Amino acid sequence: MKDKIKYDMLLKYIFFAADVILLNAALLLGAYAGDSTAQDTAYLLIYSNLAWLFLGLVSGVYQITRQWAPARILRHQIAFLLIHLLAVLALIHFLNKHYSPLQLAVSYLVFALLYLGYKAAFYYFRNAIRKSKRLRNFIIVGRNDLAYTLRKYYIQHPELGYCFKGFRDIDSIESIGQFCVENEVKEIQCCAPLTEKQAQELVAFGLNRLVKVKIVYENPATAEVSKSKLIDIQPAREQALVPLDRPINRIVKRSFDLLLTGILFVLVLWWFIPLVGLIIKLDSKGPMLFIQPRNGEGNKPFGCYKFRTMTATETVEATKAEKNDPRITRVGFFLRRSSIDEIPQLINVLLGQMSLIGPRPHAVKHNQDFGKMLADTPFGQNIIARHYIKPGITGLAQCMGYRGSITSVEDIANRVNLDRYYIERWTFWLDIKIVFLTVV
Fold first, then answer.
1. Residue 57 contacts by C-beta under 8 Å, 6 or more apart in sequence?
2. How far apart are CA 329 and CA 398, in angstroms?
3. φ/ψ (deg, to 5) at 290
4. Tens of pLDDT along 198-227?
5. Of the candidates 338, 339, 316, 341, the residue with the CA atom closest to the CA atom of residue 326
6. Global pTM value
7. Domain extents in the chain
8. Which fold has domain 136-241?
9. Distances in Å between the alpha carbon of 146 and those of 156, 180, 253, 331?
């Protein structure tokens, strides 16, 4: 699993680097064809690269998406190219710059051919390699015509990375859950009508086991697709039951993260982080930053950045810091008390490992300890459920007073319950409220 994550991350960086190189090469070729001045060409390069960077971060175009068919991937890439072109044209108009239609046409036609050509080649060969591999186990709840059509679609398209594990009936959520655990199911697609209680129970199971639950209903545009021998288009539409399973909500949340983090870096953090780092180095020997393994989205560990607040030893921060802990440095005491030691986690936000708002990530060891403490309580499953989404620098639990070092079972239970409440009822305005409460 770790190798796959590293591979996906590396692939994103390779794609981004290749895209930027091709974009700039095409722009330079267009400048030559349009006889543009060096200054105007430089401006166009800046506009285009900034727009590409921002749109790439916000849109998720670099997410490695096995669930999409090649045709959908192609549409997504074409749409991204058009949006980027419109963004660049808007910047040109807003800044009152002038470029010949020939220059822009040559630039984007060449870039589109190169961009779509190498992406199509990559996905073609990748899908050919993956046809025989089992990737994502899923089940279909229900046995109606839509369920059988959906199964047929995924069997005919192994390149999507789905492995069908069977049909299940909705009469027993408990049996569905047991089957999912035994077969390592990662996604439930429900074609059967659900009562409100059944939907709640299914969502609860999905959160507790980190299994995505989707309500599937027939796509009117493809109502006759089941009559075809070969199904080339998605025969159904999906509705996520957890707010942040919906792509538009993820885009809104990610955009907010990048916008606010970017503003903070431009205005303050570019000088504040080095200054704090210098003070830490002058106060005690050791690195400026401390990287601690913590549990993130999907319960996968990641390296969480913090300013170092303890003396640099092999066991530093391996155990929870206590009040008046002798390992805490003079500067570290102030950094902890003011929560400034958490500021480097904005780097994790930029890397996509964390969000500004979400359940606070525990250290791997602490997470295991909390799980044991809650194991015999009704809240034991919430320890896992809080990893359904990205962790945050601050969260609802912290705004309600459950922050810092907590050790009692009651406090831990309240923290994870508030985290679960946030996941199940997320809205953009809830994030705004949490930011406001954190600041004030």
1. 254, 258
2. 24
3. -120, 125
4. 888 888 888 988 899 888 877 655 444 444
5. 316
6. 0.66
7. 2-129, 136-241, 249-439
8. Rossmann fold (3.40.50)
9. 15, 21, 32, 62
